[in-house]
Amino acid sequence: MLVEHAFAKINLTLDVMGRRPDGYHEVDMVMQTIDLADVLTLEEDPAGAITLEANASSVPLDERNLAHVAARVFRANSGVNRGVRILIDKQIPVAAGLAGGSADAAAVLRGLNRLWGTGKTTDELAAWGAAIGSDVPFCVRRGCAVARGRGERLEPVNHRMHAWVVLVRPPVFVSTGDVYGALRAEEYSRRPRSPEMVRALAAGDFEAVRAGVHNVLAPVTFRLYPEVARLAERVRHVAGVPVHMSGSGPTLFCLLPTRGSAQRVYHALRGFMREVYLCRFLPSALAPPRGGRPSVEP
Ligand code: C5P
Description:
Blueprint: E1 2-19, E2 25-45, E3 50-54, H1 66-78, E4 83-89, H2 100-115, H3 122-130, H4 136-141, E5 144-148, E6 153-156, E7 164-168, H5 176-182, H6 194-203, H7 206-212, E8 214-215, H8 218-224, H9 226-239, E9 244-245, E10 252-256, H10 259-270, E11 276-280, E12 293-294
Parallel strand pairs: 1-8, 3-4
Antiparallel strand pairs: 1-2, 2-4, 2-5, 5-6, 7-10, 7-11, 9-10, 11-12
Helix pairs in contact: 1-2, 2-3, 6-7, 8-9
Bound molecules: cytidine-5'-monophosphate.
The site of cytidine-5'-monophosphate has 11 residues, from β2 and α5.
């Protein structure tokens, strides 16, 4: 039996450069792991089956769950035909733009590699992950990276920036496919913002990082779900700092330079939002999880 943490991500930048012949969109984005994590426990199943259990009713427990897909992909690619029982302690909001499902899939790939002693490299696992979802390769690696292609081509970014993140999860479930589908050609980016963001991160310039956060999908999600746009405006007013959206949304976030300023924003937002999380950047894949406590009491 072993435990793997599945960390969430936020997008610091997300530019869409155009539509690809395969129907996906060509993206250029800076992704950052944060210390909000699902906890997966993997146990050998002597009967040879792949089974899932979770503490949340919002995720399917059958073969549609990306953790289940990942176990099947791992078996098919490694040739190891053993069974596994996967328990998911779900902490990352579902369908929220935080790559929760992709993080679980990545944790299963890493976990089975350890459980079954297959000795695959991170590169191999990341390549297998691309078949599961566009964000899975990043979730296999973690840390910070520029992601291109449909999100699977990664260029690691090494930085030592410490920033606090207050997440607000509006009570809306967003389909990534719907958001990309509603993006108009005139909304495509002319040039990616990632080079500027990478420079700001490398320089450890918090103000430049916060000023450089950008997501071309935000206006699309706000158009499809006007209540998210209204909420973003309210969060900005209450927090008194810029408000951004992660991935295809609807999760909104504020970046703060210190624990104290982040705690003030966290408590102010808890006054009117049910799901607020206080987290921080996780620059190294090896750092242990901390923080990321939901405001909802268990
Ligand atoms: O890869 P994933 O299954 O996470 O993507 C979900 C949906 O989001 C895709 O079916 C596609 O409609 C859209 N998408 C896209 N371009 C990307 C990533 C996702 O159009 N780079």
